[in-house]
């Protein structure tokens, strides 16, 4: 019994030491944001500022849009999202945001004029739980759940040429069809992976890198955790980050494309660790809002900066 107790003490000490390691990054709490707390919003960054649009609580669905200035630690309200259907995915390129809604309709947001306009329709129609990214001046959307009974989950991907207002199908994401995949961009490559088909678990651990110049997908190192459906993804110029699971797990992981490896970072220090929003501004990473399984609340107005 004494030996077992000592082993537990040593293990707890090692875990504590690991979390105190400054190489695992730190979390810094900032001023609370001035609008109502929420989950499942959509966030992005443009021209040195961060944006949040939409989101929901148990009682309400939002259409407001807010802009965050990191230099002043200040939020400003912008024009509301003017369309009736909920947002499925948001990506950015060429200093504008591209919003795909649940009907498969694509809109453009211009931060300079604070205005919205209709662009096009996704070629295969409505696509819930789709993912996307902006790369090389174009935007890409793919995977997701079919709205047609019996068709299941997709792994196709499509490129939208912003300058030509034209869709082109690219190579499928390798592996099985899936929904709720994560994505982030590092340099000239996009990374897409995880996700599930049907009731999760299981969560797929495979991850792929897309090269827009060659049009090729390449599998990279598997994600190291089992059945962790990630809620947030963001990236700096050199690393990618995913974490804050939809199942109230506060873990954060870093991907190093040079070493092709994942490592666990410091856990998120708030109980509001699910359904958060996040964006990166000049390599500064921000996480805010969220839901707490402990209190059953979407009321968090907390904002945090992650410093790797």
User: How many strands, what sense, and barrel or not for the largest sheet?
Assistant: 4 strands, antiparallel
Tally of strands = 24
Shape: globular
The CATH topology label is: Neuraminidase
Strand percentage lies at 35-45%
Mean of all residue-level pLDDT scores = 89
What's the CATH architecture name?
6 Propeller
Total of domains: 1
SS field, number of helical segments: 1
Q: Terminal Cα separation, in Å?
A: 40 Å
Indicate the radius of gyration in whole angstroms: 19 Å
One letter per element, helices H and strands E, the order comes to: HEEEEEEEEEEEEEEEEEEEEEEEE
Assign a percent range to the helix content: under 10%
Uncertain runs with pLDDT below 50, 5 residues or more? 1-17
Question: What is the CATH class name?
Answer: Mainly Beta
CATH superfamily placement: Kelch-type beta propeller
